[in-house]
Design goal:
Helices cover about 35% and strands about 25% of the residues. It has about 150 residues and is α/β, with parallel strands linked by helices. The protein has a single domain, classed as Nucleotidyltransferase, domain 5. A six-stranded mixed sheet has the order 4-3-2-1-5-6, with helices on both faces. A hairpin with a 2-residue loop joins β3 and β4 (about 35). α3 crosses α4. The two termini are about 20 Å apart.
């Protein structure tokens, strides 16, 4: 199992997935205050799912350059790694929130995204894209060779 996170300053989307099927399922987002989550809730999720690795979406500008949220997401990833002693990987998450909103709306969802969070769906898209990144190896072997926070 692998947990992924769509970092945000007020909500952090979470998804759980497995390398065998290369699929993920969104979980309920965790509320955050200025990007700081209730670490006890994160710990409970890690205890429940027993992930081997964690994936954090790295928001980038469209030209691939870093932005303020990139640094905040990386800091969140560093804190995950320090607290839970699991490998943390960063993955480019450009347009995942936009894609998640489109999927939500296409299924008849309402456009009030504060009330109808798509953060878990964005975390699902982040993890599934991470599974697909290395197209030349079996999915089960994809935990190697990605950007790991150190």
């Amino acid at each position: 199992m692998i947990l992924s996170f769509d970092f945000g300053t007020s909500r952090i989307g979470i998804a759980v997935g497995q390398a065998v099927t290369c699929t993920a399922t969104p979980l309920k987002p965790v509320l955050a205050k200025e990007g700081t989550p209730d670490w006890n809730l994160i710990a409970a999720l890690i205890d429940e799912w027993q992930p081997k690795s964690l994936v954090v979406g790295l928001p980038l500008n469209m030209d691939g350059s870093l932005c303020e949220m990139s640094y905040r997401a990386r800091k969140f990833g560093n804190r995950l790694q320090a607290r839970f002693h699991l490998p943390v990987y960063l993955v480019d998450e450009r347009l995942t929130s936009h894609e998640a909103k489109g999927i939500h709306l296409s299924k008849g969802g309402k456009a009030d995204f504060k009330e109808n969070s798509v953060d878990g769906l964005a975390a699902q898209l982040i993890l599934e894209s991470w599974f697909r990144e290395s197209v030349h190896r079996p999915c089960q072997d994809k935990l190697e060779g990605f950007t790991e926070i150190s």
